[in-house]
Amino acid sequence: DAKTTQPTSMDCAEGRAANLPCNHSTISGNEYVYWYRQIHSQGPQYIIHGLKNNETNEMASLIITEDRKSSTLILPHATLRDTAVYYCISQAVDKIIFGKGTRLHILP
Amino acid sequence: EPEVTQTPSHQVTQMGQEVILRCVPISNHLYFYWYRQILGQKVEFLVSFYNNEISEKSEIFDDQFSVERPDGSNFTLKIRSTKLEDSAMYFCASSKTGTGYNEQFFGPGTRLTVL
Asked: Do A95 and B45 touch (CB under 8 A)?
């Protein structure tokens, strides 16, 4: 089973920042936090990952709490194309164990 | 930008038939994976493959499944005798490295329909 918990769904207005929370209270020291998303019927897409520092790339920012028990994915200016299921994953090994993720709806 | 490709995009087969799903991973990647997603359900790990052998497999990956890297570019998933419950989207993925920093790149999937 997935070791993270996420809200089932969230709404965000187009153009606003989407903040997706994730709880990974049992994360161990060598596990990274990864975020992937799946746009309807497509293959999952990598977004960002981090170990303990905050990270930013062209798609998103990842804020990890100091105790590493939770994190937030931030999409700074959400567009309709960001409508997808977002998966938060903590892992140290090869296989990805997907949970149910957060279904993010971007509202026009 | 390099990407993982999969063929066919949709495969329809009769129960009991063999199917082979094909994937071309990104060329400098060393780790390869298959996942499946039954309609409306979670993405599930099937198998990982490195250095020409299976490194890990899930309970789903029973004797009816096999994987192969027949040449330097293709990575295949074979289902010997398909069952109705094998109907799903099958995703191939690849990554440069394994443990730890392990960004996986997924293909667009093959939709398998077993009649």
From this structure: yes
Q: Which of B42, B95, B99 sits opposite A100 (nearest CB)?
A: B42
Whole-angstrom distance, CA of residue A20 vs CA of residue A57 = 16
Contact A41 B56 (CB under 8 A): no
Q: Nearest to residue A22, comparing CAs of A43, A41, A38, A36? A: A36
Q: Looking at beta carbons, which pairs linking A59-64 to residues 24 or more positions away fall under 8 Å? A: A60/A35, A62/A33, A62/A35, A64/A33
Which pLDDT tens digit goes with each residue over A60-107? Answer: 999 999 999 999 999 999 999 999 999 999 876 778 889 999 999 999
CA A73 to chain centre: 5
Q: Which residue of B has its CA nearest to A42?
A: B108
